[in-house]
């Protein structure tokens, strides 16, 4: 095998590796984009839950002031 043939084989090998690497990079990019969208969705749900918890705490604090004035219910 001549030096020229060896060089051609090495270049073909590098081109093959580059093709696989480009495919992997594209796949990883798609995955990162998908996970970024999912993460944004999770953050929005967490914010919504935080607002809901705050609202429930606020609502229940108003009920506590009324319940302190009322006698406890009878026990059966």
From TrEMBL:
Per the database entry, which stretches of residues form a coiled coil?
4-45
Keyword terms: Coiled coil
Keyword Nucleotidyltransferase (UniProt) = no
Q: Has the keyword Coiled coil been applied to this entry? A: yes
Name the segments for region: Disordered: 53-76
User: Known InterPro entries for this protein?
Assistant: SlyX (IPR007236)
Q: Which Pfam families match?
A: SlyX
- Name the Gene3D superfamilies on file: 1.20.5.300
The UniProt family comment states: Belongs to the SlyX family.
Name under which the protein is recorded: Protein SlyX homolog
- Species this protein is from: Idiomarina seosinensis
């Amino acid at each position: 095998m001549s030096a020229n043939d060896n060089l051609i084989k090495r270049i073909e090998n590098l081109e093959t590796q580059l093709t696989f690497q480009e495919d992997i990079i594209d796949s990883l990019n798609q995955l990162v984009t998908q996970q970024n969208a999912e993460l944004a969705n999770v953050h929005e749900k967490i914010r919504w839950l935080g607002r809901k918890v705050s609202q429930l705490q606020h609502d229940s604090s108003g009920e506590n002031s009324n319940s302190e004035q009322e006698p406890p219910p009878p026990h059966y």
